[in-house]
Fold:
Amino acid sequence: MAMTTVEKILAHASNREQVAAGEVVEPRVDLAMSHENAALVINQFHEIYQGTGLDARVWDAEKIAIIFDHRVPAESAKTATNQKKVRDFVAKQGIRRFHDIRGDEGGICHQILPEYGYVRPGMVVVGTDSHTTTHGALGAFAFGIGATEMASVWALGRVLNVEVPGTIKVEVDGQLPAYVSAKDLILAIISRTGAEGANYKVLEFHGETIRTLPTSGRLTLCNMAVEAGATAGIVPQDEETLRYLRKEADVLEVPGSFGPEPDAVYDEVIELDAAVLSPQIAFPNTVDNVHPVEAAQGIAIQQIVIGSCTNGRLDDLEAARRILVGKKVARNVRLLVFPASFRIYAQALEQGIIADLVRAGAVVMNPGCGPCLGVHQGALADGDNALATTNRNFKGRMGNPNAEVYLCSPEVAAASALTGVITDPRKL
Amino acid sequence: MATVILVLGSDISTDHIYPGRYMATVLPNETPQYAFADLPVNKRLNAREIPPGCIVVAGKNFGCGSSREQAASCLKGWELRIVAKGFARIFMQNAVNLGLGLVICPEIEAHEGDELEINGSQVINRTSDRRFAITRLPEARQAIIDAGGLIPYTRQLLLQGKD
Structure:
C-alpha cells in the first residue's frame, strides 16, 4: 500500500519496508529536544538507572538538544537552580547542542532547531514540548512527548510503542490576500477540524499556497497543528525546504526525499481556498473558537504580544513594523514584542525594525517564551484582555484566570496596537 | 466503589489541570499541591478531604495542550482516577507512563457525589443506576501499564540488554 510522508519516515526509522496507520513501531530517534523541563527528564532518567548497576549515560549525546527558553532569564531561584542542574548534566554527558541564556545563540527551542540546521527532512524528532510539531515544516516527523518518555528515549535511543498515526491531507490553494498570513490559515483549519478533530493524526500540508509559503510560514502552520489535536503537522520537503536548509541553516548535504507516494491513503482530505480568507481571531478560551476579525472589531485590549514560537520570526516583526512605523501605540495598551531568537533579534536590529517598533511605543523583550505560558514577563491584570500572536488562549494561559486571551496574526496585533481595540489591518 | 469529586466539561487543558505559573515545580512529590490550582477542589485536596481512589469525570479531549508531565503527576499524587469521554494524546501517554488511572468512557454521565463502580468493561453509576461501556486503552501501551509504568519498563529493557 502506498505510504504517506510520516509512514515513509517511520518505516525508514524502524527498518521496515512498509508500515501502515495503526501498526505499532519503535522508531530510532534522530533528535531529542528539551528545554527547562530537562530538569525533570534528568530526574526520571536517573530513576530508570537506579539499582541497575549500569552507568547512566545518554544513548547519543550528539542527538540531544537542550534549549533554555521557557523562563529566561530565570524568574525564580527554583528555575535558576533547575537550569544549573541541567547545565551540570549537559557538561557531564557531553551534550553540545546546548543553548544557554546567551545573546549570541539563545532563543526559543522551536526557532533554534531549524535555524541551526538540527532538523532535516525525514528525521524522527521528539521534544518535551507539545509544539514540537513545528519541525514538520522541514519535512520531519516531529511530535511532543512527556518527560518520562524522554528519559526513556535518552536511555534507549528509540520511542517505545508508537502507533503509526493516520494522515489527514490538507490541500490549500489560492493566493493569500494582503494582510492575511499563515496564522490566519492555520486558525481557519483548526476552526474546521475543532480542537480534537485531528487527535492521533498527522496533518500533511499540500497545495499551491503551501508550495509558495516560505519556511517561516510553514513553521507557523505546523506549530499549531497540535491545537487541532494532531500528533504532528508536516510539509513534505520541496525546493523551499532545500533553499531554507542551504541559505538559512547552513546545511550543505541534501538529504534523501521522504515525500508521500502518489496514491498514499489518507483518512480524510480538507480543502481550503486561501484567496477568500480574512484575518482570523481565536476567541477565549479554546483555540478552535475562531471567527473572522469582523466579529471581533472594537473589543478593547490592554496588552498585545507579538512573538513566540508561532509568530516571532523576522517576517512577523517586519509585518508589524510596516503597520507601526512612524505611528504610536495607543495610550491604553501595552505592546510587548518577543523575537523568537537572538539571531532574529540581531537581524531586526540591523534592519532597523527594532528601532521603529520601540519608537512606536513597543517594549522589545529578550527572545524566549515570554508571557505565553503565564510564568513571567507580562502578567495580566484581573479583567484584562490580551491579544497575542501566540498559540493558546486557555483559561489562565497567560498567568491570570481572571483575564482573557485572543489569538491573531502579527498584522492584526500591530493594527490593534494603534487603536487599543481589535482592528482589521485591511481597514486602517 | 468510588465517589465522583469533580465533573468537568470537554477540552480541559493542562493549564486547567496544572497552571503554567507552577511549571518551575517539576518533581512528582511536589506537584500535587497545585492540582486544579484555580478550582475550589484544590483546597479540598490540600486539606486531605478527598481520599485516594476518588474520581474526576470529564468530557472529550481531557488534558489537551501542553506536554507538561506535571498535569499527570499532580493527579497521580492524590491517587485520583480520571473517567473521561476522551483524552488528548500526550496527556494519555504521560498518564500511562506514570501509572495514573485513566478510563475512556465515551458516554459517561455522572454528577458530583455519585458513586461509580469500574470493572474491566464498564462504568456502573450506582447512584443513577446506569451503565456505560469502556473503550480499552491502546494495546500498544499495555506492556507499559503491565510493567507498572515506563520507568520500570525501560529499566527492564536495559537489564535484558535489548538495547
About this structure: Chain A touches chain B through 59 residues (CB under 8 Å). The domain at 5-272 of chain A is CATH 3.30.499.10 (Aconitase; domain 3).
